[in-house]
């Protein structure tokens, strides 16, 4: 499978239907979903729907979350990438948001940070984006830690579907 980016330990490529089992392992884990709507998936059909939606985003926006693959084992360990938001969120529209999600057994290895660094570089240099945003639940310490390591600045807290959520920004200059 053709990859888009390569880091020291990872390949990043488009997510495809061969990833169903790996994404199901990740997204059926309640710990993984604790700070993201708290609604883990219960069937592989739900993952198929997500992958279909991602394929649509690749076609429409040229970019979406990418599969993160361990170079040594070829396992899809999670996803990370830029999602294009056309519709308004926190009074902002037409922007790119960085997101990431990994199987729990792969937390604490630096993969989220490593993948995100490559994605941010791609966004700022190849796509010429000026500002990339990130949103995360107030109590999602692991995610906030990643954003801070990447250099994101906390901007404000806003109400995201009833949950208090942190809004972060990283500009090209920074
Ligand atoms: C958010 C999430 C991706 C963070 O993953 P993570 O593994 O904690 O993040 P990192 O990649 O930064 O790795 C963290 C730790 O790995 C450690 N590590 C181990 N080996 C490492 C290596 N070779 N290189 C770098 N770091 C390494 C680091 O010490 C780091 O901890 P520190 O920053 O406190 O020193 C993960 O918790 C997750 O998938 N959560 C569920 C989904 C979610 O909430 N997504 C975000 C929604 S906003």
Kindly name the structural category. Answer: alpha+beta
Sheet of most strands: 8 strands, mixed
Bound molecules: coenzyme A
Overall pLDDT confidence: 96
Strand adjacency order, main sheet: 1-2-3-4-5-6-8-7
Helix content: 25-40%
Structure description:
There is one protein chain. The protein is built from four helices and eight strands, in the order ββααβββαβαββ. With 174 residues, the chain is an alpha+beta fold. An eight-stranded mixed β-sheet has the order 1-2-3-4-5-6-8-7, sandwiched between helices. α1 crosses α2 (44-61) and α3 (111-126) packs across α4. The longest helix is centred in the first third of the chain and has 18 residues, at 44-61. The chain is globular and about 35 Å long. The termini are far apart. The relative contact order is 0.15. Residues 32, 35-36, 100-102, 107-113, 136, 140, 142-143, 145-146, 149 line the site of coenzyme A.
Question: What labels describe this entry?
Answer:
binds coenzyme A; alpha+beta; about 170 residues; 8 strands; globular; 8-stranded mixed β-sheet
Gist of the model:
The protein is of the alpha+beta class. It is built from 4 helices and 8 strands, in the order ββααβββαβαββ. The protein has an 8-stranded mixed sheet with strand order 1-2-3-4-5-6-8-7, sandwiched between helices.
């Amino acid at each position: 499978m053709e990859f888009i980016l390569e880091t020291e330990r990872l390949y990043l490529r488009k997510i495809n239907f061969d990833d169903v089992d790996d994404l199901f392992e990740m997204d059926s884990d309640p710990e993984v979903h604790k700070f993201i709507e708290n609604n883990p998936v219960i069937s592989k059909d739900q993952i198929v729907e997500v992958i279909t939606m991602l394929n649509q985003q690749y076609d429409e926006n040229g970019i979406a979350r990418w599969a993160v693959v361990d170079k040594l084992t070829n396992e899809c360990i999670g996803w990370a990438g830029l999602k294009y938001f056309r519709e308004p969120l926190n009074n902002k529209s037409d922007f790119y948001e960085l997101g990431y999600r990994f199987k729990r057994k792969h937390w604490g290895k630096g993969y989220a940070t490593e993948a995100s660094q490559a994605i941010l570089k791609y966004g700022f240099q190849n796509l010429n984006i000026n500002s990339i945003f990130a949103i995360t639940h107030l109590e999602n310490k692991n995610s906030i830690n990643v954003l801070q390591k990447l250099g994101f600045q906390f901007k404000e807290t806003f109400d995201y579907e009833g949950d208090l959520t942190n809004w972060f920004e990283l500009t090209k200059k920074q």
